[in-house]
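Is this the right way to post structure tokens for a design question? Let me know if I should format differently. Anyway, here goes:
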């Protein structure tokens, strides 16, 4: 009787594990791919904005140095 009960329990657990394991892996993989693309796009956007700010600062610094050099020449 104990062996029969144990066999029924094992069979029940096996059925439960098989029934719960059938997830849609293709949809999950597609979602992960879309998330990684969105993250990469976000990083690229931030890097581009940082580069634009740096170029603007460099341009302003260069203009200031040219103006200073020109004013020193006039003196």
């Amino acid at each position: 009787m104990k062996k029969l009960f144990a066999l029924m329990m094992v069979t029940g657990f096996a059925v439960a594990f098989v029934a719960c394991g059938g997830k849609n892996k293709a949809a999950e993989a597609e979602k992960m791919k879309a998330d990684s693309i969105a993250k990469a796009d976000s990083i690229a956007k931030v890097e581009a904005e940082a580069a634009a700010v740096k170029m603007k600062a460099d341009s302003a610094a260069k203009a200031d140095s040219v103006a200073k050099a020109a004013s020193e020449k006039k003196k």
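Format looks fine. Someone answered above. Worth noting: The chain has a mean pLDDT of 85. The CA atoms of residues 39 and 45 lie 10 Å apart.
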